[in-house]
């Protein structure tokens, strides 16, 4: 049992940091966080969210942001204690031991891969619309992997497959290239969002905001099994904020991580929340919330259509593509660094922990999971698996929050470059928010999550436990102690003789 709960020491885990190139600064981390957060939430989820909560969707975004904010404070404290790759995986290794750390790492792999694959499918849809605007049409058989349109058969999502491979190439050749590409795309994305707000704000009709909260906090409509209101909408738009935790996985490539990591996490969350709230108020002010049913898959495009600003549609379409590209980039980046950290600890094959001599990146591991993600987005129907992203993320949030409580108790004097304010209330509130969101998931999600965990436990007990670096060190130490004890006993016997 003790071997399952063996932990790493803070000083030891920092000393193990390997020679990844440290070039990320506060600006780059903020751009990385914004790149992960702003994308699908604005261009896709605002439609369904508006139908669920009405104009009060702005409050739902704020509620989801508060949940992530509490978790973000806990992430920031851990990141300042142990500025290493691995994010929640490494933090769990410090607080709760190897088995819990492996489970969290296993969940994060699912979260990052599945979200990147899902976003690649949405990216393909916007890309096809952009091509159609210029008179080009890809064969329908190569434009999606879902086959959900009646009478239409599709086999392969070619645009989504290609964009994931291109992002994987950028990630594999170096962090400098990655941050430059991400920074540029995030600036373009923010500029287009600001342009959208400036151009459409004069079309706001305050009457569309009344009633502001037509469904209240939580309610069921007659004849519907779907809950409506601010809280159910918050559960939907929570997906918008998934990914900010990937910022902490860049710790070993960050300059002065004790300060820059907490700043990057919290600043990106704050900026993204303000943008989401403003966008939501503008969109529900221009178009009555019930009308979003007409364009639920492309709510921003629907708002532009209502204003008659057709020239803006092409620009915003490009913004959607850029926005979702940055989301995929950050997700694949975070995934490769989680696997890198787990391989370094012996819990994954050494392949994933090898650092390229020229690019100083986990080259092989990046390509391995990049190809798998591209295949998943290209061939697999992943609609029914999307909620697994949510449950995997929430479980990680809860472990990190509980870890702050535990570390404050067991290691109160450990160096903390940043301290989460309001402890113990901050991590407790984070856990409560996560439990509320988890309670809203359906039972099929729990079953699929249990199957994924079962596979992970099989990997741990079949491979990881035997190859754990910490376990081998413990065995070596135990053998040395036994040898020393036997040698001492022999010396004592010879002395008596």
UniProtKB/TrEMBL annotation:
<keyword id="KW-0812">Transmembrane</keyword>
<dbReference type="GO" id="GO:0016020">
    <property type="term" value="C:membrane"/>
</dbReference>
<feature type="transmembrane region" description="Helical">
    <location>
        <begin position="225"/>
        <end position="244"/>
    </location>
</feature>
<feature type="transmembrane region" description="Helical">
    <location>
        <begin position="186"/>
        <end position="205"/>
    </location>
</feature>
<feature type="transmembrane region" description="Helical">
    <location>
        <begin position="265"/>
        <end position="289"/>
    </location>
</feature>
<protein>
    <submittedName>
        <fullName>Amino acid permease</fullName>
    </submittedName>
</protein>
<feature type="transmembrane region" description="Helical">
    <location>
        <begin position="53"/>
        <end position="76"/>
    </location>
</feature>
<dbReference type="GO" id="GO:0015171">
    <property type="term" value="F:amino acid transmembrane transporter activity"/>
</dbReference>
<feature type="transmembrane region" description="Helical">
    <location>
        <begin position="446"/>
        <end position="463"/>
    </location>
</feature>
<keyword id="KW-0813">Transport</keyword>
<feature type="transmembrane region" description="Helical">
    <location>
        <begin position="88"/>
        <end position="109"/>
    </location>
</feature>
<dbReference type="Pfam" id="PF13520">
    <property type="entry name" value="AA_permease_2"/>
</dbReference>
<feature type="transmembrane region" description="Helical">
    <location>
        <begin position="309"/>
        <end position="334"/>
    </location>
</feature>
<feature type="transmembrane region" description="Helical">
    <location>
        <begin position="420"/>
        <end position="440"/>
    </location>
</feature>
<feature type="transmembrane region" description="Helical">
    <location>
        <begin position="29"/>
        <end position="47"/>
    </location>
</feature>
<dbReference type="InterPro" id="IPR002293">
    <property type="entry name" value="AA/rel_permease1"/>
</dbReference>
<feature type="transmembrane region" description="Helical">
    <location>
        <begin position="391"/>
        <end position="408"/>
    </location>
</feature>
<feature type="transmembrane region" description="Helical">
    <location>
        <begin position="366"/>
        <end position="385"/>
    </location>
</feature>
<keyword id="KW-1133">Transmembrane helix</keyword>
<feature type="transmembrane region" description="Helical">
    <location>
        <begin position="155"/>
        <end position="174"/>
    </location>
</feature>
<keyword id="KW-0472">Membrane</keyword>
């Amino acid at each position: 049992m003790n071997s399952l709960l063996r932990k790493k020491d803070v000083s030891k885990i920092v000393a193990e940091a390997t020679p990844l190139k440290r070039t990320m600064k506060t600006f780059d981390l903020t751009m990385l966080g914004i790149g992960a957060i702003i994308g699908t939430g604005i261009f896709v989820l605002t439609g369904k969210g508006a139908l669920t909560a009405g104009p009060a969707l702005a409050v739902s975004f704020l509620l989801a942001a508060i949940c992530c904010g509490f978790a973000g404070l806990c992430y920031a404290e851990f990141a300042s204690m142990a500025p290493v790759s691995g994010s929640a995986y490494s933090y769990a290794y410090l607080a709760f031991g190897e088995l819990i750390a492996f489970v969290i790492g296993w969940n994060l792999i699912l979260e990052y891969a599945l979200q990147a694959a899902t976003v690649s499918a949405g990216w393909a849809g916007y890309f096809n619309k952009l091509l159609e605007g210029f008179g080009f049409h890809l064969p329908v058989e190569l434009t999606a992997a879902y086959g959900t349109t009646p009478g239409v058969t599709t086999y392969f999502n070619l645009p989504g497959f290609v964009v994931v491979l291109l992002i994987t190439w950028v990630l594999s050749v170096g962090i400098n290239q990655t941050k430059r590409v991400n920074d540029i795309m995030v600036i373009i994305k923010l500029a287009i969002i600001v342009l959208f707000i400036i151009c459409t704000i004069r079309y706001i009709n305050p009457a569309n905001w009344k009633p502001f909260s037509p469904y209240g906090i939580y309610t069921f409509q007659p004849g519907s099994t779907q809950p409506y209101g601010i809280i159910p909408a918050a559960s939907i738009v929570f997906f918008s904020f998934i990914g900010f935790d990937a910022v902490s996985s860049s710790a070993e490539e960050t300059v002065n991580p004790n300060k820059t990591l907490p700043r990057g996490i919290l600043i990106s969350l704050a900026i993204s929340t303000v943008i989401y709230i403003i966008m939501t108020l503008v969109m529900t002010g221009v178009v009555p919330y019930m009308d979003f049913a007409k364009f639920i898959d492309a709510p921003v495009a629907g708002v532009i259509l209502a204003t008659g600003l057709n020239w803006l549609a092409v620009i915003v379409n490009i913004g959607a593509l850029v926005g979702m590209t940055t989301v995929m980039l950050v997700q694949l980046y975070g995934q490769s660094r989680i696997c890198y950290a787990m391989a370094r600890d012996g819990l994954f094959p050494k392949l994933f922990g090898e650092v390229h001599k020229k690019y100083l990146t986990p080259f092989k591991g990046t390509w391995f999971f990049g190809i798998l993600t591209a295949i998943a987005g290209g061939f697999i129907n992943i609609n029914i698996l999307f909620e697994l992203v949510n449950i995997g993320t929430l479980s990680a949030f809860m472990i990190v929050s509980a870890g702050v409580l535990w570390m404050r108790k067991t290691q109160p004097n450990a160096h903390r470059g940043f301290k989460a304010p309001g402890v113990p209330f901050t991590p407790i509130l984070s856990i409560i928010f996560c439990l509320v969101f988890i309670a809203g998931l359906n039972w099929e999600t729990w079953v699929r999550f249990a199957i994924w965990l079962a596979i992970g436990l099989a990997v741990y007990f079949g491979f990881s436990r035997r190859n754990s670096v910490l376990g081998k060190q413990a065995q070596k130490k135990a053998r040395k102690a036994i040898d020393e004890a036997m040698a001492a006993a022999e010396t004592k016997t010879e002395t008596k003789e």
